[in-house]
TrEMBL record:
Residues 330-453 form the Mur ligase C-terminal domain. UDP-N-acetyl-alpha-D-muramoyl-L-alanyl-D-glutamate binds at S28, T149, T150, S176, Q182, R184. Carboxylation is probably crucial for Mg(2+) binding and, consequently, for the gamma-phosphate positioning of ATP. HAMAP family: MurE. Keywords: ATP-binding, Cell cycle, Cell division, Cell shape, Cell wall biogenesis/degradation, Cytoplasm, Ligase, Magnesium, Nucleotide-binding, Peptidoglycan synthesis. This is UDP-N-acetylmuramoyl-L-alanyl-D-glutamate--2,6-diaminopimelate ligase. The modification N6-carboxylysine is found at K216. Pfam families: Mur_ligase, Mur_ligase_C, Mur_ligase_M. A motif (Meso-diaminopimelate recognition motif) lies at residues 403-406. Its cofactor is Mg(2+). Pathway: Cell wall biogenesis; peptidoglycan biosynthesis. ATP binds at G107, T108, S109, G110, K111, T112, S113. It comes from Undibacter mobilis.
C-alpha cells in the first residue's frame, strides 16, 4: 500500500504519494521498517517527541499536526489537521475489510450487555456474529481479551479485517466516550447506533457532564452512516439531545422504552430470576420471558432488539431470541448461594450502576440486602462518596473493600467511600470481604459483589495480581461447604 492510498484526503507533496507503506502506528515502540508513524499529542505524552525514535526504527514517513522538533533533515513529513482521525481513517484503508453489518452502542451503562445481546440475537438467527468491547473480541472462533472497551484504531481496524476474513457478517461494537472523543471509531461503516443512558462517569477525563455527553453524541452526528438508524432509549433524561442530534443528521429513528415508539416496553413482571416482558413493535405484541434479573436488562434487551431489527433482522425471531439470552459475564450474574441466599456478581463501578443493581436485587431480599464493593484508583474520585451514599441508602449491610487501587493508597479510596457510608464495615482485602459477606448470609438475604464483573486481575500499583470475584465466591462457598459438612 502507498501513502497516497492510505491518506486519500491529505494533500501530499510531490513524490510522497508513491511511497510504499508496510504498516502504521501512533506508538514509536511499535514502529517497524517501512511504517507510517502518526504522532499524537496525547493525554500523557506528546507523540511528536518520539518522531526521531520512530524514524530511527524504520518509519518512512511521519504525520502530525505540527512538525516535530528534531525530525532529521530529509525525513518525509506530512502535516494533518487531526492526527487521531487521520490515524483511524488510514487504519481503515490499511485494513479494508469490515463485517457488512456493524452496530455500535454508546451510553454510560449497558454497552457490554447490549453488544453481547445483539451478537446473541444475530447468532440465534443464524448470522455469523461477533462483538468487540470491554470483555474483548467475542466471535465464533472464541474470545480474545483486550484491555480497552473501544480499542486503539489500528487494533480495531485489524480486528474488523480479521473478523470479516473469518466470515463474520454481523458485528456489535461498544463505543466508549474515550473512544469517540479520540476518534478511535472513525472509518467504521456503522449501519445503526444506539444510546442507552447517561450518568456520572469518567469525570477525570471529560471536564464536564456536558462534554461527556458531547463525546457520546459523536456517534450520531459523525459516525453512523447517513442512511443509518439511531436506536435511542427515550426514557433517559438526556435522550432529547440524542434524538435531536439524530434528527439533524437525518438518521432513521427507533425510540425504545416505556415511552418508546419503535419498541415500547409495555409491561414487566418479575418471574423468579427471570422477567415476563410485553414488548410492542410495529403493531404487534411480543410476550417474552427474559432470563435475566434487573429492570435495566429489559432496556438493554430492547436496545439490542432494536439494533437487530434496524439492521434488517425480522422482528418475530428477534424477540423470540431474547428468551435465550445468556448475557455478559459478571453483569448481575447469579454466582451461587449460601444458606439459601443468592450471591450476584455485577460490574457496577459507578454510582448509577450500583443503584440500579441494588434496586434490581431488592425484590429478592425478604431479609437483608448485602453489598461488597470498592472503587477504582486513578479514576474520578468524585464518584467514591456518591457510591458510598448509594450503598448506604439502598443496601442493609455494606462492606467496603478494594477494587483496583492502581497507583493510589487503597485505604484512602476506602475512606472516601466510608465518609458517605458511616454504617459500613471496612475490609481491605477483597477476598476476605467477600468471605465475610457470604459467611453472614441468612435465608432471605441477597449478596451483591459489585465493581469487577468479568475482571480476572486486581491492579495494585503497577502489578496485575490474579483475582476474580467468581473464583473468590467459589472458594468461599467450597470452604464453607466443607466446614458445614465436617
Ligand atoms: C486517557 C486515555 O484514554 N488514554 C488512551 C490514549 O492515550 P493517548 O493517546 O492520550 O496517549 P499518551 O499516553 O498521552 O501518548 C501520546 C502518544 O505518544 C505515543 N508514545 C508514547 C510513548 C512512547 O515511548 N512512544 C510513543 O510514540 C503514544 O503511543 C501516543 O500515541 O490512547 C491510547 C491508544 O489508543 C490508549 O492506550 C490510552 O488508554 C489508556 C491506557 C487508558 O487507560 N484508557 C482508558 C481510560 C480508556 O480509554 N477507557 C475507555 C472507556 C472505558 C469505559 O467506558 O469504562 C475504553 O474505551 O476502554
Ligand atoms: N441499561 C442500564 N442502566 C443502568 N445500569 C445498567 C444498565 N446496564 C447495565 N447496568 C449496570 O452497569 C454495569 C455495567 O454494565 P455493562 O458492562 O453492560 O455496561 P458498560 O456500558 O459496558 O460499562 P463499562 O463502560 O464499564 O464497560 C452492570 O453490571 C449493571 O450494574
Ligand atoms: N473501563 C472502566 C473499568 C472500571 C472497572 C473497575 N473495576 C475499576 O477498576 O474502577 C475504567 O477503566 O474506568
Ligand atoms: Mg463495557
Amino acid at each position: 500500500m502507498t501513502l497516497g492510498e492510505l491518506l486519500p484526503e491529505t494533500a501530499l507533496a510531490p513524490g510522497f504519494a508513491q511511497i510504499a507503506v508496510a504498516g502504521l502506528t501512533s506508538d514509536s515502540r511499535k514502529v517497524k521498517q517501512g511504517f507510517l508513524f502518526i504522532a499524537i499529542a496525547g493525554n500523557k505524552a506528546d507523540g511528536g517527541a518520539y518522531a526521531l525514535k520512530a524514524v530511527q526504527a524504520g518509519a518512512v514517513a511521519v504525520a502530525a499536526e505540527h512538525k516535530p522538533d528534531g525530525l532529521p533533515p530529509g525525513a518525509v513529513f506530512i502535516q494533518v489537521a487531526n492526527a487521531r482521525r487521520t490515524l483511524a481513517l488510514a487504519a481503515s484503508k490499511f485494513f479494508p475489510r469490515q463485517p457488512g453489518v456493524i452496530a455500535a452502542v454508546t451510553g454510560t451503562s449497558g454497552k457490554t450487555s447490549v453488544a453481547a445481546f445483539t451478537r446473541e440475537i444475530w447468532s440465534a438467527l443464524g448470522e455469523p456474529a461477533a462483538s468487540i468491547g470491554t470483555v474483548g473480541v467475542v466471535s465464533p472462533k472464541g474470545e480474545v481479551y483486550g484491555s480497552l472497551t473501544t480499542p486503539d484504531p489500528v487494533d480495531l481496524h485489524r480486528s474488523l479485517d480479521e473478523l470479516a476474513g473469518d466470515g463474520v457478517t454481523h458485528l456489535a461494537l461498544e463505543a466508549s466516550s474515550h473512544g469517540l472523543d479520540q476518534y478511535r471509531l472513525d472509518g467504521i461503516r456503522i449501519a445503526a447506533g444506539a444510546y442507552t443512558n447517561l450518568s456520572r462517569d469518567h469525570l477525570d477525563y471529560h471536564p464536564t457532564l456536558e462534554a461527556y455527553l458531547a463525546a457520546k453524541l459523536r456517534l450520531f452526528t459523525d459516525l453512523i452512516a447517513a442512511n443509518g438508524t439511531a436506536v435511542i432509549n427515550v426514557d433517559d433524561e438526556h435522550a432529547p439531545q440524542v434524538v435531536e442530534a439524530a434528527r439533524q443528521r437525518g438518521l432513521k429513528l427507533m425510540t425504545i422504552g416505556r415511552r418508546g415508539e419503535g419498541i415500547r416496553i409495555a409491561d414487566v413482571a418479575i418471574d423468579g430470576f427471570a422477567q415476563r416482558v410485553e414488548f410492542a413493535h410495529a403493531g404487534h405484541i411480543y410476550n417474552v420471558k427474559l432470563p435475566l434479573v434487573g429492570a435495566f436488562q429489559v432496556y438493554n434487551a430492547a436496545v439490542a432488539a432494536g439494533l437487530a431489527i434496524a439492521t434488517g433482522s425480522a422482528p418475530a425471531p428477534v424477540f423470540a431470541a431474547l428468551e435465550k439470552l445468556a448475557g455478559a459475564k459478571g453483569r448481575l450474574e447469579l454466582a451461587g448461594s449460601y444458606n439459601g441466599a443468592p450471591i450476584f456478581i455485577d460490574y457496577s463501578h459507578k454510582p448509577d450502576a450500583l443503584a440500579k443493581a441494588l434496586e434490581a436485587l431488592r425484590p429478592y431480599a425478604s431479609g437483608h440486602l448485602v453489598v461488597v464493593f470498592g472503587a477504582g484508583g486513578d479514576r474520578d474520585p468524585g464518584k467514591r462518596p456518591l457510591m458510598g451514599e448509594v450503598a448506604q441508602q439502598k443496601a442493609d449491610r455494606v462492606i467496603v473493600t478494594d477494587d483496583n487501587p492502581r497507583s493510589e493508597e487503597p485505604a484512602e479510596i476506602r475512606a472516601a467511600i466510608l465518609a458517605a457510608a458511616p454504617g459500613a464495615t471496612e475490609i481491605g482485602d477483597r477476598g476476605q470481604a467477600i468471605r465475610a459477606g457470604i459467611a453472614g448470609l441468612r435465608p432471605g438475604d441477597v449478596l451483591l459483589v459489585a465493581g469487577k464483573g468479568h475482571e480476572t486481575g486486581q491492579i495494585v500499583g503497577a502489578q496485575v495480581l490474579p483475582f476474580s470475584d467468581h473464583e473468590a465466591v467459589a472458594t468461599v462457598l467450597k470452604d464453607l461447604g466443607a466446614r458445614v459438612r465436617s
